[in-house]
Amino acid sequence: MSVKPIREHAGKSLLEKYLPEVSGGKHKMGCAGVLVTPGVLDTTGSQTWDSILQANPWLKTTNLVAKPDQLIKRRGKAGLIAVNKTFDEAKQWVMDRIANFTDVAATFTGLIKALQEYADDIKEHKIKILIRRAGPNYLEGLRKVKAASDKLGLGIKVYGPETHITAVIPMALGKIDPLPEPDLSAPCGPPVRKMIDLKGKKPTPKGHPPAPAGTKHTLVTATPETTSIVYGMQNRAVQGMLDFDFMCKRKKPSVDAMVFPFSGNHYVKFYWGTEEILMPVYTTTKEAVQKHSSASVFVNFASFRSVHETSMEAMNYSSLKTIAIIAEGVPEQQTRDIIKVAEKKGVGIIGPATVGGIKPGCLRIGNTGGMLDNIVMSRLYRPGSVAYVSKSGGMSNELNNIVCRNSDGVYEGVAIGGDRYPGSRFLDHFLRYQDDPNAKMLLLLGEVGGIDEYDLIDAVKKGRITKPVVAWCVGTCASCFTTEVQFGHAGAQARGDMETAAAKNKAMKEAGFHVPDSFDLLPEMINKVYTSLVEAGEIVEQHEGETPQVPMDYTWAKKLGMVRKPANFISSISDDRGEELTYCGMSISDVFTKEIGIGGVLSLLWFRRQLPAYATKFIEMILMVTADHGPAVSGAHNTIVTARAGKDLVSSLCSGLLTIGPRFGGALDDAARMFADAQGSGVAPKDWIEKMKKSNQLIMGIGHRIKSLANPDQRVEIIKGFAKKNFNSTPVLDYALAVEQITTRKRANLILNVDGCIAVSFVDMIRSCGAFSKEECDDLMDFGCLNGLFVLGRSIGFIGHYLDQLRLKQPLYRHPWDDITYIQELAGQGPE
Questions:
Q1: What is the DSSP string of 181-217?
Q2: Quick one: fold of 228-535?
Q3: Domain 625-807 classified CATH 1.10.230.10?
Q4: pLDDT of 86 higher than 50
């Protein structure tokens, strides 16, 4: 498909038509909570498009903005476009750019980078930016953005949860004056709300009994004794539920058990305050219910593929009265099946596609209410007087914040989920709230699509619901579009005028609901109704008690920079925490791209540096020449015997490796130290040999049982030849060869053996390659890295012998008697 060039001027000329229609000449654009204002244009009065062009030269540019190569160059440089990616690379690219919703400060890191990159453009076009953000670590995020704004001179205004979520929109549009920015230096905490002044009157609760229930409530209201079973290994969610319980001063945890079918029955450790407790995990729901029959809530974290099966099974157990289905994307037919069975068995369903619900002081379903700081901020640890229902789980957090700041808090809140067929409807919950004397005021946050709000309207008209209801349906902007708009939820689409948000808001207002003129005025309406209830004596405000404290998780506290702890381990050779594994700073992809080989990898992991190519080649030669020396040597023999005893590979390998020592393969480090010290001392080879003889010390690296000067070891010749040809100097090797000339005069097999040749050549290599200091060279010999090279190389042969014995199907080894000398005499009893 061809891409036609679109000139900026052509695109900007569209502004002539639409700018005068937007906000009385104030021209703004909004995206994801950040509002930008190109506030230099004015299409009011007698100005024409030509006069606007003259006053604003930047509108006259005619660059091609849709030409593919330019698009990729410009956007690609900013990290906004990726090309020629494999599926896995594309997946990783997208994941890297998804906002970190668990940490606002981390999310804003990318925003700050963009502000720094485009600061000049923002100032040139006089763009105004307003930010309103809440969530985990929001205060630190706002501080960082504000600091960046001040440094760049952008004049960004920032607001937190103390400001209504949509308040920045009328500010940006010039409808209201900008609000004072919050004090970002103040500590984060719940809002301080003054009690309503009754002017000396003592409130007298009227205590009207609720109307009798006309229907049976299938969702049982939680109590401080309600417990649940959680399906799925959702440790973080369970810990959040337990922290909420502890904050609410429950006597016992609200989670009795977990179900995870992919492992055996076991226990998982959780915190109850500062103490650790064990939570049982079962492989089947049946066993969990049998052993915890008091649990009445089933929190189902199963995926959309298995949620139907697990929910249907849960409804077979009469002790489970309420099931919360968290998964999104559940097929509508399966949802209807679940609802049908639930109605038949009298089981309440919350969801699918929900965060759950919360009842302060009693129960929190899953992650409802967010992190603990948000629980405290919204005072969800103790009950208030306002009971709400929403579809959106994300908006339920905003409702918690709004209600807390404009009343005495939340009594209960439920997010029924945004699917077209929710397991429970608005009416189901509002009937419960109506019949609960502690829920004094009801709050509804509906949305475009569906007709559930009309059932609620009918209940109010018939007098079934008599408590005051504050309500609003979001999605009123849908009428601004010429075609139907599908919002975020599956059910958020109007299929007719009756399902539009505007029509529902109008109908609710006519039925006597307290409906504000806009969502922005919802907090004001809640406060107004709440105040009237307090003044009427329906609600008696209580003095706010002490804010409970729950210990913060160490990982989160460390992430916020609040604590520090010395590490138990220090590692400087590899790192698997980032996008790609690194060996001493080199990514694994570079390891292969640069073709550094096994010698290069070993140099990075053992020596923490890249060695010259000849040095890594020499390391590989060492591994090759030490790989094996036949089945007769002690290490190979042990490996073979162990393999024939039926032991596994690791056991057989370890059996062979444990024979490596001073008498077999473990003399390399000693040989290196001996010859290096001797050569460095300036003592002549002949005098050094005499010195060793007088002190009764063997010269490590000298001597072979079979090989001699006349029958040289080809491994030694290969190592010696490579060192002479490639190393900058070989003083220690030369010294060892001079010693060999003297020792072989005594006996022909007292040659420089392969261990000794490797040892002295390795010393020359590390000393002459320029990568190590003298002290580092001495340390490497003391650390045993030369013996490590022998262990690594010989492991290849030992594994080969193990596989060979299995391949040949060799039986258990038993040593023959005729090869054993038996001594029958008792110790100490010699011949008389």
A1: PP-TTSPP-----PPP--TTPPP----PPPPPPSS--
A2: Rossmann fold (3.40.50)
A3: yes
A4: yes
